[in-house]
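Why does this matter for the project? Reviewers at the last site visit asked to see concrete outputs rather than summary tables. In response, this paragraph embeds two records directly. Each consists of the residue sequence and, immediately after it, the corresponding structure tokens. Nothing has been edited or filtered.
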Amino acid sequence: MASAALRLPENVPGDFFVDSTCIDCDACRQIAPAIFAEAGDASIVHHQPETDEETKRGLMALVACPTGSIGTTDHHDAHIGIDAFPELIADDVYYCGFNAESSFGAWSYLIQRPDDQGGNVLIDSPRYATQLVKKIEALGGVRRMFLTHKDDVADHHRFAERFGCDRIMHAADGAERHGVEQVIRGEEPIEIDRDLIAIPVPGHTRGHMVLLYRNQFLFAGDHLAWSPKRNSLIAFRSACWYSWTEQTRSMQKLLAYDFAWVLPGHGRIHHEPPAKMREALRDCIDWMKTR
């Protein structure tokens, strides 16, 4: 829970605030950009909510914050933020909220599908929170959990125990050590079912994978994200834990696929027609080769 005594001085005066425990994961700035902004190595409140919708977005950011660094001085109904998750992004794809500190605030996603089409898929693990678990259960539970890489596994074991789901992870990132049920090996893409393709993309970590859903949604983990500053796709050079050369090579593999959405664990979500997305991907690869 955020402490008013630790309130960062850069916050504008008023109800919402960020305290000094902030780890600068960027979640609040994505959820409620009208309220939160970057200041050095932290997020701060640059605008106090003035409407019910702005207040709701602020409370969603408070709930999602992995370190509990967002607080309010006024009384608010916490359920306004809690009940907003999972948040529909498009079609049958949701953002889970409840980001986990152990994943440095990485975003997790849920695909809701009928059982006869393979059932629901959880991509990476959010924080195990009773309120979220109940909401996911109401949406049909979890049949599979896809873990993109070792950094963002968070509370995967608790979700697996609760829903009895099969986890999917690459051997090179310690899948067997984590007790994962379906272990992927090598670099060949694996068709999990007719709508889901697991694509190994070593680079950020040795066993990193992305998940392509319906040739529309690319769940990118820490491999790829959108950069508003560059107005293009980007990889994180300073957070490449295995090999930048391999990550650049892996990025080129994605040119063989169509997708209209990039849904990362860190960084900005982006949506464009596949042709535009491929153009942005080529730009990203050219940029990576100069780093």
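We now turn to the second protein, recorded in exactly the same manner.
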Amino acid sequence: MNGSAFELVTLKNGGLSILSKVHGETMHIGSDPRTEAEGLHIRQQKLVDRMEKFPGPDPFVIWDIGLGPAGNAIAAIEALQAMSKPLEIHSFEISTEVLEFALHHAGSLGYLSGWEAVVRELLAGGVASPSPTIRWQLHRGDFSREKIRAPAPSAIFFDPYSPARNPEMWTIEIFRSIWSAVGNAGAPPCTMTNYTRSTSVRVSMALAGWYVGVGVPTGEKTETTIAANSMGLIERPLGCSWLKRVQASTNAAPLRSASYGRSPISTEDFESLKHLPQFVMDL
């Protein structure tokens, strides 16, 4: 693929990943795509156990926001394909160029090996059937601008490029739009995992309605972020000690526009934050 916007790079652990030349970011920088997906999303969200206990007959739904090279979706398929209950994976992506690049290098990357036909089916028709119980649907378009058309999820993999490179995907409004699908009384219990530990992102999630907690380490990151529509789904929720760090941080202002900037939190936003149920309960 001459002239591609992507290239294969070797990680410190010897594995291969993909560098976006446009964004200047390497995907899954601390570990290979399969290892990161399994630890950050699959195990942390306890998807096997939760799907086993999920009441039927409706499918267990996963939103894969930022399909990228499909590492997260493939990891979910491999972990859940033996389940007898139905599963729907809804992958959202503005461009499939990186997935096409990954498919071209499937043998080198490893995690796509054996799934090439399924990925081609997804790219060609927008829907694929990796197993009799799994339906994988591709939603093409700008997630930050288009109306979400998918059933309410029980799990969300939130994996766009970083706030510095892709700020429009990290605003309060984005997290509110996702919350609108899971924040009502009839929605299923839902968890959302992400690789960041950014204070401003966590503030944005919390002000959008989410309960927010400390996520598991992955690669070179000592912690990540998990959010949920119920406090009981988070093992290490952020508490009042975190609020003190928010006050002292130079990068705690919630993101409200597609222009990325670092600044302290305003008095008004901090007052709203500290009166959220998550932090009132911690007093």
